[in-house]
Amino acid sequence: MTEPLTIIGNYLSPYVRKVLVCLELKGIPYRIDPIAPFVGDDAFGRLSPLRRIPVLLDGDLVLNDSTVICEYVQDRFLEVPLYPADPVQRAKARWLEEYCDSQLGDVIVWRMFFQKGVRRFLFNEGTDEDVVRGAREEELPVALDYLEAQLPAQGWIFGEVSIADISIAAFFRNAAFVRYQVDAARWPRVAGLLERAWALPAFHTLARYEDGSLRTPLPEQRAALAAMGAPLTETTYGTAAPRYGVRRPG
Question: Other C-beta atoms within 10 Å of 25: how many?
Fold first, then answer.
């Protein structure tokens, strides 16, 4: 590989985080244009017709959707496999990834993180507290009950860290951003997996940039991340005024 891969997408997106963790675990060089999809310009719209993040650029190749990107990365860079070799386990891992992308995406990203963060600070709109309350008290516990039944008491789901572990940990980072902590007494297996995953150097490296982004208004994030040494692209697609696009970013 002559040039690093390029990832377009904000550090605070769990879909972007999932891709970046895969790249970090595999040791693949990359650069990032840390935009939110809401501020992507017209050129971004041509790269991402659904106006979602992440987007991967690899030479002339443009890929959308975090799952497609992670599978491409796995197929191209075989070292440090992140999908189980066994076809049954591989299918189960892909299902857990999809469950996170869809169900946790709806509950954690849109009904909690978007309501408490993006909607307030980017669009200057009020939080629908009933939506947040329902997500925290009703929907997320159901998801946690399901995940608790799928996880081992110790270690990783399929023996070695996989896309399933990465996906679960990536989404619950956003729950932590809005001060939701998994009850370790009620869901010990989920809480244990999160503790193990977040302790990985890949998650730890990204957490520094995530925390810096959380403390910084979106228009100032790129400069703040540059000062922190983030591997930024030379140019950005994030030059448009904030606007709603297609609902789910990932």
Answer: 19
Structural domain including 165 reads 87-198
Q: Residue 20's Cα: distance from chain center in Å?
A: 8
What's the pLDDT at 246? 56
Q: Look at residue 32 and tell me if it is in a domain.
A: yes
CA-wise closest residue to 210 among 177, 185, 162: 177
pTM: 0.95
Residues 119 and 125 sit within 8 Å (Cβ to Cβ): yes
Asked whether residue 218 carries a pLDDT value surpassing 80, the answer given is yes
Same domain, 47 and 109: no
pLDDT tens digits for 28-55? 999 999 998 888 999 999 999 999 999 9
CATH number for position 148: 1.20.1050.10
Show the tokens assigned to 84.
């189980």
Residue 235, phi-psi category: left (phi > 0), alpha (psi -120 to 50), beta (remainder): beta
Confidence of residue 165 (pLDDT cuts 50, 70, 90): very high
Sheet architecture: strand order including 55-58: 30-33, 5-8, 55-58, 61-64
